[in-house]
Amino acid sequence: MSHPRLTRFIASIGVLVLFATGEASGQHFQMPESISRDTSMPVAHPAGLLPRPTTSFGAATGDGWIYMLGGYTGPPHDYYREAQCNDFLRINMHDPSHFEYLPHDDKIQSCSLETHDGRVFRIGGMIARNSRDEAQALDSIDDVLVFDCDSKAWCPMPSLPHRRSSHDSAIAGSRIIVAGGWGMDHENDTRIWHEDVLVLDLTNLDDGWKSMPAPFKRRALATTAVDDQLIAIGGISADRKMSQSVDVLDLETGRWTSGPDYPGVAFGLAAETRNGRVVASGADGKVFDWAPGEETWRHVGSLTFPRFFHQMAVMPNDDLMFFGGISRGVRPAHLEHLDLDDDRTATTVRHLTIPTPIASKNRQGMFVHDGWLHLFGGNNSTGQHDFEAENFLEDSHRLSLANLEWETFEPFPHRRQTIQTATAGSTGATYALGGFGHDGEVARTWPEGYRYDREADAWMDDAPNLPIPRSQFGLAEHDGTLWVFGGLDYDPRREKDDRFRHVTEVVSASIADGDEAFAYEGISLTGPRRAFGGAVLDGGYYLVNGMRENFQIVDSAERFDFETGEFTSIASPARPRLSGQLVPLNGRLYFAGGSSPTADGGFEPNPSLEVYDPATDRWSTVMETIPVTPTHLRMMPYRGRILLFSSHVDEGGKVDLVFIDPGTTDPATTPGVMATEIADDDA
Hints:
By secondary structure, the protein is mainly β. The chain is elongated and about 95 Å long.
């Protein structure tokens, strides 16, 4: 067993940047392992990359810019000076790929940031006095500084009456309001939870900060202002209990009232005001809004990369941008753009070209778990038939889709390609079966099955083996049973006319107890089929196109019913594909990649993305051309959208990722489906 060895690569603004800092996953509560998504809700789209993902930073907007200051990049709750940031940058709200670094020397986190009249105000915060190998010495500070955006200079402002961090602030007219937080003093070993709200009128600095009593003592909360009202949401109390409370302060009368409890995860959340309504999001990835006086919050959208201890910004067009934060030990690098008025009828595309340490070019085993794309085995050549022993790989890498960092994990037990994988819905266990590899003399198909144990980071040999070696087959899990469809048994040691055996027997094995072998129970394909698109949807397994004997294309498609064991014909795409990828999403099947026949009898890459609607038995085109090569493309569903992956590039050290939201309106009745690409593919 090997331990994850961290290699971090981030692509941003045409530059490849290397980071090498550690990460842990300590949190106050158990993060959700999966993200539920209402498909009718607007979903945020990746819209750019932070130069350095961070948490617990200050942020504010002004004059078309998002300002970010400070933050922390080390393990949660193990704070030290080296992992605190002195970064001060601003991101162009009209072009998030453009950012500027501004002068700032102090390493700091847990401060708040506000803007007013061309100035940026830094309020409070926490400084780690200790280095990484020393005992923690954490101090909240009372400093308040102002940055002039014209002169690019910092000046002192009236200090807070007491040191404060883990607070939040808002601005109402010319007043800065600070709420929540605590004061840490490492020398006196004290942590004082604040129970007041501070107000500073920027037009009357001589009066300094005025204190107003608050009906709570909480930190890691979010605040925003609606007209002359301060809204304080959630946080954590001194007894380490998360609060859902919403408290409203009338700044004119000093009177507090209660709003409806926040319905999501309310610790380390972010909040802003949009068109007189409060918008907030927390670690569950859900976005809610509410207006003072209303009785309930509305669920209005979702993030692709859930996070907490992040920030959000209201854009000039009233859209929202989410950035920074952490989730399940990973700091998302993506800025996410959310249009709350999006009806999701248009297709949106986000294309990234990122650096990679992997040597494989194609045909890897692949699965997604907990936001990580796992790759293992594969072939190191872009040639179509390079099958020498040195072309096959055993290496295993996983990519965090949130922060685009790579880790290695336990190498596959054999040097193989075209390994098929399936993940059990009930247990989350991942199985890897069959494939094609070299035995020292020839390249041939293999029957072995393995289960990947994530806790032990080990490939276990307790998975069922195939009764017949197979490659280019379909593997599916349904109700605790593994099913194997079609494929090829190839062995060049056999007689020439017997080397290619197309396997039509459908075999299955229960994985509930982990010890059942595959069995054939009389079910066979209606005809030979390999290198086809296969996917599970609504109690059935769909098989689309592929190849049969004598290298002939299969131009048909079928559905297998798991309950009855019967095959029925369905409509086939207008242009059949070889090695196409089929994935289920929102009750439909999406088909992309691979090759299609040409008029002269050859094959050419098929660049389109198609969708099949089982309700109408019709295929439609979503995109005429996807932005990556279709050859050896891999495709999978990911949090309500489609993820394309390709390492099939001659140039080493790079891979392509494409996030596609195909939209929700029936493409068959929607003329001119529009694709909007936001590309960072010049890296």
